[in-house]
Amino acid sequence: MTHPTDLISVSYDELTANLSKGKIVERRLSEIRDSFLNPDLIDKMPTDEDPIVYRVTAVEPSNGTGDLHYGLGIIYPGKVGPEYFLTKGHLHQARETAEVYIGLSGEGYMLLENEKTLETRMEPLGKGQIVYVPGHTAHRTVNTGDKPLTYFGVYPANAGHDYGAIGKRNFLKVIVEENGKPTLKDR
After folding, report:
1. DSSP string, 84-130
2. Are 100 and 161 in contact (CB under 8 A)?
3. CA–CA separation, 145 vs 61, rounded Å?
4. What is the rounded radius of gyration, in angstroms, for the C-alpha atoms of the chain?
């Protein structure tokens, strides 16, 4: 078992978005098919493989009041029809908690949906960009470029991840390629 002091200093590989320590979660296309607008298009894609769409390495040094967790993510380029590869997306279990994402490389967006007002917007996330995700906001990361999108996220230790709420109804809007550029559209 890893002791919290073993996680004080962690190194990362900029090209692969791998952390030297932490819990790794990989999501393949088949695992997130219901996140897409038209999941039936996945069956028509010209590949026999089930590609990894994204990977996140999470580091949880301690779970006390005021502690922080963080993760390093990578989303590979690709599309299902006109819709870009994306993360599953989630709300926080502790709904009031916020999160900060820092873009390290690539091009993409954060899809943000306020669970109270249902207002949805897309905020740019790429190298040198920072996105603040307020509490009570579902969020999903989308790679709109032709290279991997890598990002660093920091959130309170008590935030937790609620994938179930989004899994039941999905996001109300999607980011698709339209006229050669990322566009926010109704689901």
Report:
1. EPB---BB-SSTT--EEEEEEES-EEEEEEETTT--EEEEE-STT-E
2. no
3. 32
4. 16
Non-local (6+) Cβ contacts of 10 within 8 A are 19, 20, 21, 22, 59
If you classify domain 4-186 with CATH, what class do you get?
A: mainly beta
Check: pTM over 0.85? Answer yes or no: yes
Find out whether 55 and 72 touch, Cβ atoms under 8 Å: no
Query: For residue range 37-46, what is the model confidence (pLDDT) as tens digits?
Result: 999 999 888 7
pLDDT in tens, 98-142: 999 999 999 999 999 999 999 999 999 999 999 999 999 999 999
Q: Which of 75, 95, 99 minimizes the C-alpha distance to 87?
A: 75
Extents of the domains making up the chain: 4-186
Name the 3-class secondary structure at 165. Answer: helix
The number of residues making up the chain comes to 187
Query: Greatest CA span in the chain, whole angstroms?
Result: 51
